[in-house]
Amino acid sequence: MADLLGLPDRARQSHRLTKKDIVAQWEGSSSADARLLGRVISSARITAVLSPTTVGAAAVETPDRRVDMIPVIEINVVEGAKRRDTVRVAELLHRSMPRPSILGLYDESAGTASLSVALTRLSQTDAGRSVVEEHLIASPERFATGSLHIARLSRTDLGTLHNDLVRAVAADGKFPRLSLSAAEAIGLRRQITAATNELTTVARVAAREPSMQRRIDLNARARTLRTSIDALEARLAAPPAPTVPPTDPTEDDK
Fold first, then answer.
1. pLDDT band, very low/low/confident/very high, at 249 (cuts 50, 70, 90)
2. Which of 115, 36, 107 minimizes the C-alpha distance to 73?
3. What angle, 0 to 180 degrees and rounded to 10, lies between the N-to-C axes of helices 212-236 and 182-208?
4. What proportion of the chain, given as a percentage, has pLDDT over 90?
5. By the 8 A CB rule, do 160 and 126 touch?
6. Each residue's pLDDT tens digit, 156-171
7. What is the 3-state secondary structure (H, E, C) of the chain?
8. Are 170 and 143 within 8 A, CB to CB?
9. Residues 78-115: pLDDT tens digits?
10. In what order do the strands lie in the sheet with 41-50?
C-alpha cells in the first residue's frame, strides 16, 4: 500500500499487530465479531503512518473527527476467506480506531489484494472507536501507476488529504470533480458498480436467450445501462485537461 500511495521513506515503517490484540478489542462488546476477526485474519502489520512530520499535512480535530495521523495497515486473510467476511473485517478495523485509516487486504492463496477506505466520525458511545459512515473497497488493479500518490492530493491538512484520497479511489484514480464531496463520490461509485453488474448479467442472459424478441429487449436494456454508466462516470470524474500543443520556436522567426 505504501508504494500504491507513493509514500516517502519517512512515512514508512514496519510494526506487527498481534491478532490477539485485534481480537481483544471486540471481545467485550461483540463476541461474534471477535471470533470473525480471529477466524479471518492471518496476520497484520502497520506499514506506514501519515502524519504532520511524515507527509507535511497538519493535524485537524473537531468535536466529531480526529485526524492527527492516518495509519496504513496491511492485513493478510486466511486461505478461503469469504468476500463478505473480509469486508466485515475491514469495517471492524476502521471502527476500532478513533481516526481514519487506510487498509490493504491481501489473500495470498487467491493472489488478490484490495484497498479499503472509509469515512468515519468519532463514536459518542464507545471511547476510542469510530462510526463508519461510508465504506469503499477497491482493487488496486483499477488504478493507473501513480494515480493515488499523495503528491497529487490536497495536503491542506490530514483530514482534507484523507477525503481527497477517498474521492480519488471512488473515481478509479482519475481526478474527481471538485464539487463532489467524498461521500457523494462513493455514492456515484456504488451506482456505477450496480449498473455495471446488471449490465454483465443482462449481456450473459442475452447471449443464451433463444427468443429473438427477448434478445432485442435485453440488448435495449444493455444500451440503456451503458448510457447510464457513461453519464455516471462523467458526473464522477473531471474531464482531462486539454493538452496544449508544443510551440515551434522557429515560428517567431518567420
1. very low
2. 115
3. 160
4. 80
5. no
6. 999 999 999 999 999 9
7. CCCCCCCCHHHEEEEEECHHHHHHHHHCCCHHHHHHHHHHEEEEEEEEEECHHHHCCECEEECCEEECCEEEEEEEECCCCCHHHHHHHHHHHHHCCCCCCEEEEEECCCCEEEEEEEEEEECCCCCCCEEEEEEEEECHHHCCCCCCCHHHCCCCEHHHHHHHHHHHHHCCCCCECCCCCHHHHHHHHHHHHHHHHHHHHHHHHHHHCCCHHHHHHHHHHHHHHHHHHHHHHHHHECCCCCCCCCCCCCHHHC
8. no
9. 998 999 999 999 999 999 999 999 999 999 877 889 99
10. 12-17, 41-50, 70-77, 102-107, 112-122, 130-138
Lookup: cell for 131: 462510526
Looking at the chain, how many residues does it have?
254
